[in-house]
Model the fold of this input.
Amino acid sequence: MSPEPLTAASDGAPFPIVGVGSSAGGLDALTSFLSKLPTNTGMAFVFIQHLDPTHDSQLPHILSRLTSLPIHPANDGVELLPDHIYIITPNTSLTVEQGILRTAPRDEAPKPHLSIDFFFQSLARARPGRIIGVVLSGTGTDGTLGLAAIKASGGLTFAQDDTAEHGGMPKHAIENGCVDVVLPPDEIAQEIEKLAHNGFPAIREVLPVLAGTDDTDGADDIAALPEDERPISAIIDMVRTRVGIDFSQYRPTTIKRRLLRRLGLLNLPSLAEYERYIAGHPEETTALVKDLLINVTSFYRDGATFAALPTLIFPALTKGRLSTDPIRIWVAGCSTGQEVYSIAIELLEYLRGSPSSPSIQMFGSDISEWALSRARAGCYSAAAVTDIPPDRLARYFTIEPLGYRIHKSVRDLCVFAKHDVTADVPFSKIDLISCRNLLIYLAPALQAKVFRTFHFAMQPGGMLLLGSAESVGRSSHMFGTVDEKKRIFKKMQTTRHIGLPPLTIKREVNPDMQPPAHPSTPTVSDFQRAADRIVLGRFAPAGVLINESMDIIQFRGQTHSFLEPAQGEASLHLLTMVPFGVADALKSAISEAIEHKVPVRRERVPMRRGEHFREIAFEVIPVLMPDGHAGSFLILLEEQDKTIPTAPSAPAGAPAHDARMSADAREVLQLRTELTAATGHIQSLGEQNRTLAEQLRAATEETSSTNEEFRSTNEELQTAKEEVDATNEELITVNEELRNSNQSLAKTMELTAAIVETMRYPLLVLDAELNVESANLAFLTAFRVTAEHTLGRRIYQLGNGQWDIPELRRLLEDILPHNSAFDDFQVTHDFSKIGRRTMLMNARRLQGVLPQPRIVLVIADITEQNRVADDLKSTSQELLRSNAELDQFAAVASHDLQEPLRMISNYIQLLERGYAATFDDKARLYMGFVTSGAIRMSVMINAILAYSRLGHQGSGFTLAESDISLHNALANLKHKIEEAKATITEDHLPKVIANAEQLTQLFQNLISNALKFRSDKRPATVHVSAVESEHEWTFAVADNGIGMEQEHFGKIFQMFQRLNSAKQYPGTGIGLATCKKIVEHHSGRIWVESQLDVGSTFSFTLPKSTTLSSASGRLTAV
Done:
C-alpha cells in the first residue's frame, strides 16, 4: 500500500521543493538518485547542473528514460508542481519566487557563475522550512553557500559521500558544516522518500501553525504548539548541562524550528520522543547545538552598511584620536569570520596614507568553536569571496589551490575567541560593536541584557552597528540613532540606572558523554609489581617500564648500552634516549601493542652510536592489570649482533677486498635504513610542528581573549563595588552633595560679594526689569547714597534721574535678549551730591551661579582723568608755543648777529687793503686771528640758524629716493672728497618717506664728518648701506678714520661738544647734533659704533610706515 504523500492540497501548506545540484560527473549520480526516487513524494524537484552555455542540454532527454516523473525545462514563468522535475536551461541563472521559476541571462548573475548557490539561496528565501538541498558529484565549491542558506532557513541538506566521481563540491560543503546527512545518491533518494511520508507530516502534526506559515527565523514569536512545553524545556536544560549554553531566552520560533528539523532528520514522531532520543545519544546534543547556532555570514554583507563605514563611522572613531590610542572593534556572533575581516579591510583602506595611524584591534566572538576554527584559518572558497571588491581581494588575499586566504597583515590584527555575549564577561573599551542578525534570535529580555553589556563595553561615544531587521527598541535611552536606515547607533551618556552586564564566570561543562570511570586507578607500584612477575619468568634482560605517555617509570638491568640521555633539559621520555631509527621502530611497536594489547617484537633494528653500528632486538609487552587495562609497557632490549660480522674467508685467487665490500654494503644498508627512519622522523616532527603552531596560534588568541575578559572582569567588579557602595549610600551622598553644593555656592557668593565690595569702581547688578539687585560700597560712597534708596529701584529712578538717558536705556534693555554688551558709554551730568561729573559705563550679561541671568554694570568716574588730560593738552600746547618762540628767537638772534659780524669783516678787509703794507709781522698775525674768528663766528651762526629751522620743515615729507639724496650730498662735497682723495661706495638704497632736503643734509654731515676725521695712515674710504627689517630701514655710514673711545659715544651728538681741538679739526660742534635732530624728526634713532684707529660707523633708522604729527610737524611711526 502506497503511503499518502504530503502536498499542498492535503494540509494547506506549500509543498516541499527539492533542489539538486551537480557538476562534472553528475550524470551518474543523478542516474543513481532517480533510480530510487518514487513518483509520489508530493515534492517538486529542480535539477541545477553546470551546463555549457553555448550548447543545448540533452539532460532532459537522458533523464526521461530513467523515471516516469514529468520532466520540464525550467523556463521563465513556469509554476512548480508536485511530483514534477524541472531542469535548468543553458546560459541562465535560475531563481524561484512564490512557487514560480524566474530566469535571467548568465551575464546578469554574479561572477564567477555559481548557479547552484544562486538557486539554493533564492529557494531559502522563497520557502523556508519546506525545502531540501542536495549536492552531488562536482568540482569546485558551488553549492556550499546555498546549502548554508537552506539549513539556516530550516530546510534539510544532503551531500553525496565518497562515491562521488568528483568530490570537490560535496566535500567542501561537508567541511563547512552545511550538510545534515552524507549518503550515496540512491540512499539520499530513499531518505527523501522517508521525509515525504514521515518527516514533513510529523512536523505538521507537531506544529501545524508553524508549518502553514512562511514565517522565518527572527519573525514574531508564534504560539507554542503543542501546549505542553515540558519536552522543549527538558531539552534546553539538557543542552545547558552538557555544553554550557543556555537557550532558554532564545526566541521560541527559532528553538521550535530547529527542534522540528531534527525530528525530520531522525524520523521521530514527537518532541517527547526526541527528548528520550537525545537523553540516550549525547552526540545528538552537538548536532542540535550546531543547528541552533545559525552560522550564516558573508563578506561585505549588506553593501549599504559597509558604504557607511568610511563616511559615518570611521571619521567619528578617528577624530581627535592619538596615534597611540588603538581602535578597538568587536564583532559579536562573528561566525566564520567574514565580517571581522571585511571591517578590518575597510578600516585599513580608510587609514591608508595617514602619516600616523592608530593601531587596530579586532575581536571576533562566537559560541561555536567550529565556526571560530574556520575564522582563525582565514581560508575561503572562490564562491565565498565573490562580494569582495576586486581591488580589496587582490590586496588583502592570497590565492591558494582551494580558494583564497586572508593576508597575514590582516589576520594578525584579529583575535577570535569563544564568547557567549548573553552570559560571559564582555570585552572593554570598545570603539565599535557590530552585532548584525544575532539579536533577532533572542527574546526581548535577553536583548535588553545584551544591550546593557554593549553599553558597558563601549568607550564614551562608541558606535553600534545592527542588522537590517534589528533595532535598539526599548534601549533607546542607552543608544542614540545616527542613521536609522543603516542601523547605526551611538552610545549615549544617561542618568538612568542601566545596571551592570552579567558577571558570569566561564561555565564548567558537565558532559554526559564522558565514558564511565574505571573501578580503580592503578598506581605506579601496581605497574612495577606486575612487571616483576613478568621479568621473573625470563632471564631478566635489560629493559625499561614506561607509561602510556612513553615516559620511563623504571630502569631494569643494564640499559646504558641501549639508552643514552639527550643533551639539554633533563627528560625521561623513551624516544629521546635512542637514535631516530630505533625511536621510529619503538613508536610503531608501542602503537601496535596499545591497539592489540599483545606483545610486539622487532628484530634486527639497526642502531648507530657515533661511528659504531650494531643490530638490536626489542619486545614491547603490555602490562595488563586485573581489569584488562594496559596502563604501562615493558620494553625488553637485547643485542642481536655484538659486532658487524665479516664475510667468510675468500677462496684462493679471490680479490682481497670482497669481504670488505660485503661489510661496506651492509653498513651502507644500515645507513640507508637509518636515513629513511630519520627522514620519516623529521617529516613527523614537521607535521607536529605545524600542528603545534596552529594550536599555539589558537591558544595565543584564546589567551589574548581571556586577558581581555579578565581585564574587563576586573573593571566590572570594580564598577560593581562602586555601584553597590553608591547604592547603599545614595541618599546620604545626595544630601552630602546638596549640602556641599550649598556651601560651595555660599562660599562663591561670599567671595564674589567680597570682591565686589573691595572694587574701586562703582558696580550695580540689575535684573531683567533693570531693577537694582545689588550695589557695592564703592557705588554708595561715590554717589553718597544709601542702600535703602538704591536697592529694588529701577536704575532710571536713582538720584535726580541722571541715568534716565534714552540711549543708555536702549543699550541696557538689549543685553539680555541678544546677549550683547557695551563699553565706554559716557555720561556727563550734574549729580545732586557730588556735582558735575563725567562717568564711563560698561555692561555685560552675568550668567553663572544665579538662577536667572542678570546685568552687571560698572561705572568709572573719569572727571579727574579728563581734567588731567585737558591740563596736559594745555601744557603741551604751551610747550609747543614756547619751542616755536625759542626757534624763532634763535633764528632772529642768528640773523641779528650777522649784521655786526659782516661789518667787522668788511672793516677788516678795508684795513688789509689800505694798511697791509704798514703792518709789521705781529700786526699781520693779529689781523689773521681777527679774520679767522670772524669766519668761524659766521659759520657757527649759520649752523645755529640751520639747526633752529629744522623744527619748521615738517611739511616736506614725501616718498623720497634715498640714493638721490646721497648723490646730492656727494655733489656738495665734491671738492672735499677730491682734496681728501677719499673713496665713496654705496649699496642699493631704498625709497623712504622723508624730507629729501633734510636727508641730503643728514648724509652730507655724516660723510663730511668721516672726511674730516680721516686717518693719515691709510687712504680714506666711506661706505653707505641700508638693511631692511620688519618695520624700518637701518642706514649705515662706515669709515676707516681715526675712530673714538666708547666713552664718547653719547657726547658727540650734543650741541657744541668736541673731542678734538678746533685748530686740529676745524668745526662748529653742531653737525652731529643736527643729524640727531633730523633723524628724530623722522621718528628714527641714531647711534655710533667705533674703535680707536680702526674707524666709525654711524647708523640711523627710518620707519617704513609713518604719519605726520600736526602738532609737532614730526613724523610718527605707525
Summary: The first helix runs from residue 8 to 11.
